[in-house]
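Write out the 3D structure for:
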Amino acid sequence: MLHTKQEQKSHLSVITNLLSTYHVLTLKQLDRLFPELSEEKVLFLIRQLERKRRIAYHPDSGYVCHSRECIPSHSRIAAFWVMLDFQPHVTFHTVSEFPITLTFYTKANGFNVIHVPLGKEVLINQAMTGYHDDDLTNLVVIDRVEQIPLLSFSGIGAYCTVSEDGQVQYYQKQGVTVD
């Protein structure tokens, strides 16, 4: 498939906008976001932006950063993997404010992705106590399955763990159903 200049400009713009929003993503996430492109083509686009000093790519870690000073956020990277599980149905996504990591929409539903680091269950329960939006389902990223009984805020549609390579495993609390 020919990759025209216009398509290339469009992809470069999307990558730049994504990194200005999320600050750090992985090369594997960008590969998955552009299924129509080969890994080599995505890497070519990344290298092109890097040559223009628009982004920074760290091949050892696989991180693609908005700037050299960016520090990877495990929460944001994990939440982005969860959102990618819903591709190509995602119509909009963005970074959110604590305690919500990322919010995204499909044509039919809206979702908050909330990362709960191990040992921060009480903090997230308290932070989510005052938050309730009937229009959004909470997808809760946990570091370990043992955290599930420690979480008690409303609106949880599913729990999930995310592996280093982006594999998302979903869990349900007994009595909770995922539509």
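The chain has two domains: 5-65, 74-171.
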